[in-house]
Design a protein that fits this description.
- Chains A, B: InterPro entries: DinB/YfiT-like, DUF1993.
- Chains A, B: It comes from Metapseudomonas boanensis.
- Chains A, B: This is DUF1993 domain-containing protein.
- 2 copies of one chain form a homodimer.
- In chain A, strands 1-2 form a two-stranded antiparallel ribbon.
- The longest helix of chain A is centred in the C-terminal third of the chain and has 26 residues.
- Chain A has one domain: Four Helix Bundle (Hemerythrin (Met), subunit A).
- Chain A is mainly α and 168 residues long.
- In chain A, 45% of the residues are buried.
- In chain A, 57% of the residues lie in helices and 7% in strands.
- In chain A, a hairpin with a 2-residue loop joins strand 1 and strand 2.
- Chain A is globular, with a radius of gyration of 16 Å.
- Chains A and B meet through helix 1, helix 5 and helix 6 of A and helix 1, helix 5 and helix 6 of B.
């Protein structure tokens, strides 16, 4: 059975969103144990001009749902980016996973060459589906999940590499 | 043309190692411009019990060369992990790219099901090649390149998302 666009996207997204959920649950428990206001973590940044934790989670969600939808040729669901608590971030992840899991392998057949256009501030970006998945969506997803992890590690949350990789 | 193990690995590794090289070059220039001793960046960490920048680069290299070699069924080249300057880190990246680029598409044919065994401190980890690539090697590579980026951003180096993604 050869590698498919489906295997390289949907199960990867589901797994990494699940790992992000685990990491956030550990952060919430850590905040409670150390009597730290949850917003301290949710608004934490690694640099003044980097996004805070909540935005990292929202962009990880956007990357996964956007890629799954575009490769399948269906409309990208729009979420309002209003999450400001761990419970709301967990809901955001859960609804993203639900959407992504709803995409079937048959919908991604031939998506290697499906043309994907992204509207960026700097203009349109156009890719064949395979380049979009491998060189844009996956690096972006991993970038934002890793940055969420790094923000929390920097703030003393006891997460480890196995939480990031999940179930190895 | 359907997605292949080669396309999902070798060009991704080469691209991300190239982006890591660009990010380190910007860090070196930034250190010079701000009269900061390069070791300050090279030894910087996001948490006391996380690896410093140099080790992040070494592990990114290890992940790429290890995955390329194991999927191809050839010996993993061993590098001594002695880099302590930007020039040495750039050499490490360059020799990794050279090794990875030497792996041909034909060597990865059928590697979806090739059994890969990793010797970990906690015991052996065994995967079919596809799961090893998608759920272990790629997340690890992105984790360490993102963490290198985050260490530098946290230290005020003017790198941006486009440096991380490379040539989008």
């Amino acid at each position: 059975m050869s590698l498919s666009m489906y295997e390289a996207s949907i199960p990867v997204f589901v797994r990494m969103l699940g790992n992000l959920s685990t990491i956030l649950a550990k952060a919430q428990a850590n905040a409670e144990a150390r009597s730290i206001e949850p917003k301290v973590f949710i608004e934490a940044r690694l640099a003044p001009d980097m996004f805070p934790l909540a935005r990292q989670v929202q962009i990880a969600s956007d990357t996964a749902k956007g890629c799954a939808a575009r490769l399948a040729g269906v409309e990208v669901p729009s979420y309002p980016d209003t999450e400001s608590s761990f419970a709301e971030l967990q809901e955001r992840i859960a609804k993203t996973v639900e959407f992504v899991q709803g995409i079937q392998a048959a919908q991604l057949e031939g998506s290697e060459t499906r043309i994907v256009t992204l509207k960026m501030r700097t203009g349109d970006l156009t890719f064949p589906g395979q380049a979009y998945l491998l060189h844009f969506a996956l690096p972006n997803l991993y970038f934002h999940v890793t940055t969420a992890y790094a923000i929390l590690r920097h703030n003393g949350v006891d997460v480890g590499k196995m939480d990031f990789l999940g179930g190895v």
